[in-house]
Amino acid sequence: PELFGDDVLGENQRRRFAPNEAQRDRDGNVLDAKGWRVVDRACPRCHLQLPPELLTVRPWFISIVGAGRCGKTYFLTSMLHELRKESAAFNYAFDLADSHDVCTYVDYVNRLFFPEDASELTWLEKTREDTLINEVFLDGTRVRLPKPFIFYLRPIDSGKRMPQGSRSQRRSVVLYDNPGEAFEFQFDRHVATDRHTQHLAESDAVLFVFDPLLDPNARRRLKEDSLVPQDPQLARLNFHRQEHILSAVVNRIRRHRKLIDGTRITVPLAVCVQKCDVWNRLVPHGHVIDHTSVVNLRDHGIAALDTEEINAISLLVRSLLQDICPEFVATAEANFATVRYFPVSAIGTSPQVDGDHLKVRPDDIKPYRVSHPVLWLLYRWGLIFRA
Q: What are phi and psi of 186, to 5 degrees?
């Protein structure tokens, strides 16, 4: 992120990263200093791979945060999978970048949605730190940097009517994921070597994955409600005060952005309340929440987002969180200028106990509203219409 100061790189910066036009062979291939054909580009400081598209227009950075065992890996995998399917309705292609780090995402998607046998139980391991971190030498010091998941957003049909913000032919979206342990107190105080969460200094949005099944108040209410199916996840003895994680996120944003205490953070916060297939009966008037807020605009031949419904549903979900964990709501709304609450379910079904793990059958997976937090952001950035 420190490479990008303005939306478009200046001419001097472009010259610095773009190869000299004279260093090409007869077929037009770019050559390096020793005459070898260049197939990849790298950052001149950390030497990690740098897709060329990142050098033209500043990407959007999205930080995904949450407590350990809240289901971030399932949510991220399901969200990106659904976005790639649904983006065509908005006249976009959501493509994988030419990046080595995206292999982790491809492996997750194949295991969850495209296994050899969809009737066999599968699961995603808890995110290990080494799968999300690159260790590099930076200015002579070994530094740990988070791996970016990079995607491209490209309009499909240039003849269709599109919002003004979509005039650029392509835009990159960079997502950063962190294990929950990265937000423990004093985890990254040694900023010279540990930069796990410094992406929060450049983030254009924060997605907080909140799991009510980790909250003791919500678990008690779910167990007492006879109409709620007894999900095997309720039998697990995992508890976490997730408002502490949110406080740690707020502190890191303020620290990295050098914000004065009391100043509200202008970056939007999308609270993605996981596993709504389990807790949706606890939401007052929850029956009005259907499976999507995407509307087809027949006159334009394109889809749009019903933002009024998004806001109404947000208030319903907020009322539940205000009841079970008012500290979380207070922390979110006292520190962020814009907050929305989204009911989501990465798999849309209850897992099954298999040995020491909870597993799911791919045939039973039915993601629920997992793409809506990012669609809401795309609307705010002027890329899609509102219904």
A: 70, 10
